[in-house]
Amino acid sequence: MKKSFIAILVTTLFFSCQNKAQNTVSTVANNNKIMAKENIYQFKVTDLNGEEFDFLTLKGKKIMVVNTASECGLTPQYKELEAIYEKYKGQNFVIIGFPANNFGSQEPGTDKEIATFCEQNYGVTFPMMSKISVKGSDMHKVYQFLTQKSKNGLEDSEVQWNFQKYLINENGELEKVIAPRTLPTDASVINWIEG
Q1: Would you say 89 and 124 are in contact if contact means Cβ atoms under 8 Å apart?
Q2: Torsions phi, psi for 53 (to 5 deg)
Q3: I need a surface site. Which of 3, 63, 69, 108 has the fewest CB within 10 A?
Q4: How far apart are CA 57 and CA 44, in angstroms?
């Protein structure tokens, strides 16, 4: 009688522990799903004119987020950025520029000076946001999302230099990271926009 009672007790404890382990795995899996569902639509930022810009207004569009600078060897990429924006803006595609002074102090200007520079030199018409930091302890929350796998669900990355591109799909999720020296008109970018 004692032996069968002990056997029942051991069996009960075994299945109880197994169920707890499965529940823990499910909880971890569910938490991972929640993390992977973060998207860019949660952010509101300020544009170069001091107006609020809500990423939620871009729902359903493909988005390229790019950190820009006015005094960089890569600054002529503004021309290609504007060209693809003009070509594809009617096809649910938008570029969002974030001026940043993180690399070689190559974006020293005020928001007003940056706006004037972009318009006069490159005819930029795509949305440009207020100057932010894209790395370091004062990294803007948008770039925390873009660079941290725990937030974007895709990969960890570091902004290497001015004009690094982050490609966001129609669901607001990070899909690709494009190196600074890769032109916006590169086949890898165009295929993604048209795909």
Answers
A1: no
A2: -125, 120
A3: 3
A4: 10
- Tokens of residue 131, six digits: 């100057």
> For residues 148 and 92, what is the distance between their CA atoms, to the nearest angstrom?
26
Tell me the pLDDT tens digit for each residue of 163-177. Answer: 999 999 999 999 999
pLDDT in tens, 129-159: 999 999 999 999 999 999 999 999 999 999 9
CA-atom Rg of the chain in angstroms: 23
Q: Is 60 left (phi over 0), alpha (psi -120 to 50) or beta?
A: left
Q: How many CB atoms lie within 10 A of CB 32?
A: 12
CA distance 110 to 48: 9
Q: Is 21 exposed, middle or buried (0-12, 13-18, 19+ CB in 10 A)?
A: exposed
Please say if 72 is a catalytic residue. Answer: yes
What span, in angstroms and rounded, lies between the C-alpha atoms of 190 and 179? 15
- How far apart (Å, rounded) are the C-alpha atoms in residues 154 and 175? 7
Q: Pick the catalytic residue: 35, 36, 72, 193?
A: 72
